[in-house]
Amino acid sequence: MKLKNFIYKFVAVLLALFAWQAAAHFTNLPILLPSPIEVIEGFFSVQEGQMFYLAVITTFSNIIRGFLWGFFAGAIFAVLAGRFRIIRELLWPYMITIKSVPVASFIIIALLWIPTDDLSIFISFLMVFPIVYNNILEGYKSIDPKKLEVAKVFNLPFYKQFVYIFLPEMKPFIISACSTSFGLAWKSGVAAEFIALPLNSIGESLYYSKIYFESVDLFAWTLVLIVISFVFEKLMVGAIKLAYMGVEKL
Predict the structure, then answer these.
(1) Count of alpha carbons within 13 Å of 199, Cβ hemisphere only?
(2) Suppose 124 and one of 35, 176, 189, 215 were both cysteines; which one would form an S-S bond, judging by CB atoms 3.0 to 4.6 Å apart?
(3) Residue 148 predicted with pLDDT over 80
(4) Local structure of 129: helix, strand or coil
(5) Neighbours of 161 (CB within 10 A)
(6) How many CB atoms are closer than 10 A to CB 205?
């Protein structure tokens, strides 16, 4: 089944590349739509620049910090909201506001108070927090009450309830929260850099590629973002599954 799914995805990617190549050929305007071959060549050529690795490290470190802060804050407040209704009610207007207001508005408003170098950290945090909060809160609510009653009967401490009841029951919700929120954190963090233009960042490189009409570099940097996001998301989900395997062996 896994091999079959891989083949389907591989064929879908090939068809997408073929459609892209055909569109680039008929358009015949590389400044508007470079071909896949030109973009792949640009992908390797931008890596030869002196600032490439500095830009990647700067952007990645900022976004991963915002993601981790948002994930742990969202998880903690979700557990608290599941246990205490007052916290859930107090957080409700903030969750609605964050989900409703466009990311661009948050970026522009945050620029009034936050230094440009730290803006992507804050925006990533802001996008991750409600997703993790809502997912883990739903997972908390879905826990079988009978298991909690048995835990109370045997006077099981809360940390043991958390390890042996809450974590296993919330596993799919935690993995879903990680997978969804990291992609959004990555996109919103780079968008914040594109507007704020912190030095030595991917957002800055994208901006200058745009204003100088370097379309190949623009597409190449976008490909860099896709590759980093895809690889790290898979690594992160895999690490969570390994951590769960360790917990299950306890």
Answers:
(1) 0
(2) 189
(3) no
(4) helix
(5) 17
(6) 25
Tokens of 228: 């980093």
Q: Report the percentage of the chain scoring pLDDT > 70.
A: 97
Is the pLDDT reported for residue 133 higher than 90?
A: yes
CA distances from 64 to 3, 49, 140, 210, 229 (A): 32, 23, 25, 25, 11
- In angstroms, what CA-CA distances link 19 with 31, 52, 224? 18, 29, 21
CB 120 within 8 A of CB 64: no
Q: E strands along 166-215, which residues?
A: none
Cβ(78)–Cβ(162) under 8 Å?
no
Q: Retrieve residue 227's tokens.
A: 């590759």
Task: Supply the DSSP symbol for 86.
Answer: H
Amino acid at 157: P
Q: φ, ψ for residue 49 (rounded to 5)? A: -70, 150
Residue that has been written with the tokens 């640009």 in this structure: 42
Q: Which two tokens stand for residue 121?
A: 């950290």
Amino acid letter, 17: L
What pLDDT score does 102 carry? 87
Smallest Cα–Cα separation from 112: which of 188, 184, 185, 196? 196
Category of 216 on φ-ψ map: left (φ > 0), alpha (ψ -120 to 50) or beta: alpha
CA distance 113 to 107: 10
And the tokens for 190?
């780079």
The DSSP symbol for 114 reads S
Give Cβ neighbours of residue 73 (< 8 Å, ≥ 6 apart): 125, 129, 132
Residue 15 has pLDDT above 80, yes or no: yes
